[in-house]
Amino acid sequence: xxxxxxxxxxxxxxxxxxxxxxxxxxxxxxxxxxxxxxxxxxxxxxxxxxxxxxxxxxxxxxxxxxxxxxxxxxxxxxxxxxxxxxxxxxxxxxxxxxxxxxxxxxxxxxxxxxx
Amino acid sequence: xxxxxxxxxxxxxxxxxxxxxxxxxxxxxxxxxxxxxxxxxxxxxxxxxxxxxxxxxxxxxxxxxxxxxxxxxxxxxxxxxxxxxxxxxxxxxxxxxxxxxxxxxxxxxxxxx
Lengths: 115, 113
Known about the structure:
Mean pLDDT of chain B: 89
Distance between the termini of chain A: 34 Å
Radius of gyration of chain A: 14 Å
Strand content of chain A: over 45%
Order of helices and strands of chain B: EEEEEEEEEEE
Low-confidence stretches of chain B: none
Number of helices of chain B: 0
Largest sheet of chain B: 6 strands, mixed
Strand content of chain B: over 45%
Shape of chain B: globular
Oligomer: heterodimer
Number of strands of chain B: 11
C-alpha cells in the first residue's frame, strides 16, 4: 500500500556509467517531482511533471533526463555519471487543486553513490 | 535568488518540553507553507501546512505560526517525544501556476530522554 515508491533504494556505480531510477505513485496525483538531497541535507527540486508534461526544469545538467510514461510514473535517467551526482534522490507527488499547491508526498529515496 | 532559511541548524530539548523551530522566508509572494519531518534514512514526511490567509494552524501536538509582516514561520511541538527527533524542513510555494516548493536548510531536533 506504499503511496510513492522508488527503485532501487541503493545504487552504487562507476563514474561514466548510465543509470535509471524509477518512481511510481498510487495516489492518483497529477504532478510528480524529482528532488536531490546533498550530504548537508539540502533538498532541491530538479524536475516536475504535471499530467506527463514537464513544467519545472531547474538548472540541472542535460545528463539528467526525466521521463513520464503516464501520470503514475516518473523515471530519472542519468548519463555519464559523475562523482558529484552522489546524493539521495527523492521522488514526490502532489495533486494541484483549484486552491493551489498542496502537500507533496515523498518516496523513500534512492541513495546514489558514484565511485 | 530568494530562498527560505532557518535560524537554528540544531536544537536539543528534553523529553516533555515544548520545541520551537523557526524559519525565515524572503519571497513575499509565497502563499503556501509546509513543514516536513525527515527521519534518518527516510523521505520527508508532511507534518502541517498553512496558507497565507491564516496566521495559525494547529494539528496534533503541532502548531504552525505564520507572521507575514516579518516573513517568519515557526513550528511548535508540544510535549516533545524521542520519536520527534529528526530533521525539520520548512518549504514555501510562491503561488499562481508555480508548482515549485523551495525548501529551507533544515533543523536537526534532538530529544533527550
